């Protein structure tokens, strides 16, 4: 990572960085790019000045790699914000654990002045995150794989725990995803989780290297996916999982997000082959159901 040059245009940051990211860590720039592009619009769906500042301070040709900005990752972030805001209100001083947090600025979007935030990511991602979003009283960065459960030692579970894994689990192998979800459900008496899920066909396309965003960027291979009609199987991963909810993925910009995808989602068979956002609730109790 090159952190040599002063960035005169952005006085809040004294450095422009040129990250040397590859594979899945590079995808954190993709998500940042989309959120920052949305936040820049006069009719923005999401206010996120920090995302704009960080995106501008990173020397990276976003458009060359990722093409035109898209709203999928923005809707994903907005819907997660909504769920987290409600949870934060019900759990004053609760602990959010953001696995694979990259350069997400969600802490700043949902902070109520009490929530505690643990951002967990790989060392190369945390090295960059810490430059822009350093540790503070209630926000901590931890360089640790989500699959290395030692991150649990940094969690304070007393006011409730909420785990996000947005843009992450699809890059893991199925047995690792199952183990991770089960371990979280086992460890905390009361915990909720949110993560996105890709359909099997898209996972296979990425393995064949066919998810090419631009001539200069091919998305990394994914390994875990579920079709929408299989989401209820998540409940079998641990007896403490009491409810699996699919979040209605609505909103966004353009014909694709406003018309085509919502229409496809309603179709009986084809609607199963779309991505989804899932909210899992865990309580040590028996009356489990899927909605
Ligand atoms: C698509 S980005 C998502 C970033 C962020 N959640 C967002 O929505 O902006 C995927 C993130 O997962 C992180 N990641 C990849 N493997 C990981 C692992 N084993 N443990 C923790 N984070 C990981 C990457 O470094 C990257 O920051």
Which features would summarize this protein structure in a list?
291 residues; alpha/beta; Rossmann fold; eight-stranded mixed β-sheet; two-stranded antiparallel ribbon; binds S-adenosylmethionine
Question: Can you describe what's shown?
Answer:
This protein is 35% helix and 17% strand. The protein is an alpha/beta fold and 291 residues long. The chain has one domain: Vaccinia Virus protein VP39 (Rossmann fold), CATH 3.40.50.150. An 8-stranded mixed β-sheet has the order 3-2-1-4-5-9-8-10, covered by helices on one side. The protein has a two-stranded antiparallel sheet with strand order 6-7. The site of S-adenosylmethionine has 21 residues, from helix 1 and strand 2.
Number-wise, the strands total 10
Indicate the mean pLDDT.
92
CATH homologous superfamily annotation: Vaccinia Virus protein VP39
The coarse overall form would be globular
The largest sheet, given as strand count, sense and whether it forms a barrel, is: 8 strands, mixed
Number of domains: 1
What percent strand? 15-25%
Rg result: 19 Å
Which fold does the CATH topology refer to?
Rossmann fold
- The N- to C-terminal Cα distance equals 45 Å
Spatial strand order of the main sheet = 3-2-1-4-5-9-8-10
Structural class based on helices, strands and sheet pairing: alpha/beta
The SSE order reads HHHHEHEHEEHEHEEEHEE
Low-confidence stretches: 4-8
Number of helical segments with 4 or more residues: 9
CATH level-two architecture: 3-Layer(aba) Sandwich
Bound small molecules, deduplicated:
S-adenosylmethionine
The CATH class designation is: Alpha Beta
């Amino acid at each position: 990572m090159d952190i040599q040059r002063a960035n005169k245009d952005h006085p809040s940051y004294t450095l422009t960085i040129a990250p040397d990211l590859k594979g899945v860590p590079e995808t954190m720039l993709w998500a940042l790019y989309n959120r920052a592009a949305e936040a820049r619009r006069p009719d923005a769906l999401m206010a996120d000045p920090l995302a704009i500042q960080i995106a501008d301070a990173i020397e990276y040709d976003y458009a060359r790699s990722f093409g035109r900005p898209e709203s999928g990752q923005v809707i994903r972030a907005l819907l997660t914000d909504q769920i987290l805001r409600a949870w934060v209100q019900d759990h004053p001083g609760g602990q959010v654990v953001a696995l694979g947090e990259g350069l997400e600025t969600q802490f700043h979007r949902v902070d109520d002045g009490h929530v505690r935030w643990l951002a967990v990511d790989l060392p190369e991602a945390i090295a960059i995150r810490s430059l822009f979003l350093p540790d503070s009283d209630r926000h901590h960065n931890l360089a640790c794989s989500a699959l290395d459960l030692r991150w649990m030692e940094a969690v304070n579970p007393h006011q409730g725990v909420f785990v996000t894994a947005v843009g992450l689990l699809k890059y893991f192998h199925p047995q690792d995803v199952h183990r991770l979800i089960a371990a979280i459900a086992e460890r905390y008496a009361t915990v909720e989780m949110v993560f996105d899920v890709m359909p099997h066909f898209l996972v296979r396309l990425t393995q064949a290297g066919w998810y090419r965003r631009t001539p200069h960027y091919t998305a990394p291979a994914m390994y875990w996916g579920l079709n929408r009609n299989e989401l209820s199987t998540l409940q079998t991963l641990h007896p403490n999982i009491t409810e699996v909810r699919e979040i209605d993925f609505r909103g966004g910009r353009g014909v694709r997000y406003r018309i085509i995808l919502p229409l496809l989602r309603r179709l009986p068979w084809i609607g199963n082959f779309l991505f989804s956002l899932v909210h899992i609730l865990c309580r040590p109790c028996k009356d489990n159901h899927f909605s």
